[in-house]
Amino acid sequence: MTRRLGVGALLVLSLLGGCGKKHPAASPVDTGPRLIQITAAPGVVVRQACTPSGPELCFNARDDNCNGIIDEGCGVATGLVQFAIAWTQPSADVDLEVTDPNGELAEVGRAAKSGLVKDRDCPGKSNACRGQNMENVYLEEGDPPRGKYRVRVRLEKLGGDNPPIQVMLGARVGPKTYSLELVLTKPEDERVVVIEL
Predict the structure, then answer these.
(1) Is 24's pLDDT higher than 70?
(2) CA separation for the pair 77, 64 (Å, rounded)
């Protein structure tokens, strides 16, 4: 299912089972993370269901083969919770900032108390990402804290590329993946998505 938001709209999707179905409370043995809702700003397109599009493609922040893992086989770290962005413009600087339910920001090279880690910042100094612009925040280990994860995607600079900058935001919660399409039009343009577990 795809939903496009008009100007001034706010999207709240309840995704316990998809398509608005009510489900009973989780049993004591069902302790894994479950998505409760996604709240996104106007202009964000949310794809609730994965549609297999063939083999997994690298560095596109999607679960192309619908196996519940984003960009597997590409050297991209993953965990029970993962947020990844990808964009094709080589010089544009887009930042992924994920704040966990405790209010702590995931940073490159340092695990937050919740276990979230950001593994790289693209395009990076000296073109460290080599045109494969993808930023990735994932739960390194353990059980993710329940609550709201604030995901901010911000265009820092165009770097000579022409707008708009189309960004794919992939989210993994347990065995399910979700795709969100974002469009950023000028420096300091940003989109915020809140994902609640």
Answers:
(1) no
(2) 16
